[in-house]
Design a protein that fits this description.
The structure holds 3 protein chains of 3 kinds. By secondary structure, chain A is an all-alpha fold. Chain A has helices spanning 7-25, 30-66, 82-91, 103-119, 138-146, 149-159, 163-194, 199-204, 211-214, 216-229, 255-279, 295-314, 322-350. Chain A contains 13 helices and no strands. In chain A, helix 2 crosses helix 11, helix 4 (103-119) packs parallel to helix 11 (255-279) and helix 6 runs antiparallel to helix 7 (163-194). The longest helix of chain B has 31 residues, at 58-88. Classes of the chains: A mainly alpha, B mainly alpha, C mainly alpha.
Amino acid sequence: MQFLYDTQLLVNNIHSFLFGMCSLYGLPVVLVTIVAMVITVALVGGFISVNVMLLVLAERKIAGHIQDRLGPMRVGPHGILQTVADAIKLLLKESIRPKIADKWAYFFAPVIVMAPAIMTYLIIPWSPGLIIRDLNLGLLYLLAVSSLGVIGIILAGWSSGNKYSLLGGLRSGAQIVSYEVAMSLSVIGVIMLCGSLKISEIVEAQQYCWYVVKQPLAFFLFIIAATAECNRAPFDLPEAESELVAGFHTEYGGIKFAMFFLAEYANMFVASAMGATLFLGGWQGLPILGLALPPLVWFLLKTYLIVFVFIWFRWTYPRIRVDQLMSFGWKVLLPLAFLNIGITGLVMVLG
Amino acid sequence: MGLTNYLILGAVFFCIGIYGVLVRRNAVMILISIELMLNAANLNFVAFTKYVDPVKLTGHIFTIFVITIEAAEVVVGLAIILAGYRCLKSIKVEDINLMKW
Amino acid sequence: MDCLEKICSLLPNMTFWILALMGIVCAVLAVTVRNLVHAVLFLAGFLMSVAGLFITLEAEFLALVQVLIFVGAIVVLFMFLIMLTHQITDLSVPQGNQLKGVAVIVATVLFGLIFYLLKAMKWQEVVLPVKGDIANIGRLLLSPYVLAFELVSVALLVALIGAIVIARKKE
């Protein structure tokens, strides 16, 4: 387990090993890049699937305990294999398409929702050397790519050929776009403090003091905006079961619904990972506790803490009506975000 | 790739945009074609910055302004179309003829 | 393995041609399809390929801004409007008007003119790294171009307020 503590060295070793193999057998150097890309894609895909299984199970169990019951208990010991059963059921379902649904748009909408959710895994800092690509404009990449998913949701709503799906899709699109502005502005405070958009530099800069201490308002805004971005309660009107049947994914079943589901949980994980990175110090550990945990474990702990908070929100708060949602986003969160930027700027200038 | 390649590509996009503006009857389609033309101009600016003036980044700055003004124009255009739709129940530009003699 | 090396050395050029082809196909489809929503999706494809071209031109910040603003906000705005105006069901109406032939001639003539001019010019191409990082752009926006920056902000504000007023429901 010692290699987990110094992942930068691990990554360097793997790279030099691959280069050595290539020069030994006379293969071109670009093969290293291709092999690294294939390995990374496989790892990310595997992680997303395992993560979704864990999160779905966690959600149902936590929901059960909050509601003073036990949650799923039948499949496997204490219901652990419930998600496996769900996945098998979803994959074996017949794919039905409504006749008036637009064929290509109906087919591509889940793809357009899923692709940005996976693309955001490019910049997650798992450990000191373990970022897939440490882009110079990492944070901007995150904001840009996460705004691509809206198109898929609106398209899904429209292509179902169903008034309720259309309404759900439009409401969800409006909500995501509004809260995206608040999220971007709340992150600007962190950028001002750190002076760089590079994720590894933001994590390094939190060595002595996590940004949640310096920017509590921004953290609060980020968590609320991230819940709205992921279409989770209390902002989940677009996919509410009691309001719009199932919102924009009413007419989707089987694998397509599984993709929407996967995308939602993948998004939730990325939003929590970003909250942990930007505000809770990423893979930095707390030296006070005296435990020498590897940085990867610290990162996962913090991320899953925020995921737990998201799940807790869902089963504690009632759903907000759509006009209350929009007025909250524009009239409360946005001015608070501006206030945060103003205060940060003032404090930085005055010393 | 050489500068001329990017400029010719920009010209192709621009001409496709002009075809779109002249041919389509739907106001939203005309706005889409205008987007094509403006993006062709942006491509030109950025190509010039890379190949002719990489130090002063004038093209990049101008592209930022073009993107901003383009966003403003699309917003106002779409608002006008929406208002027109409410009155006329149609978004074809031929139907906006109440002030013709 | 030699062919692999040859392929890899051609990759930068191939990226340009692939992106250019994708852009042209998306643009042509965007102006010719009947279904409005499909046209907007092809516009999104076109904008993504232009963002890719920006990346090949070493303008990463602009590429990401393009994706964020255009594909993330303006295409969404188009889709909202199309869905609020219910014209998508009217597919029997031909989308082009009688100016098709004239438009093709005009577009081709214009392209021919620009092509001829571009082939005739000789630019001095400089091979320096483009320092288009966000710190440089920020510095430039706040010192030489600050007036334009402020005016563009005011223009955005005016457009925002104007759009809200125009599109409001009259009560």
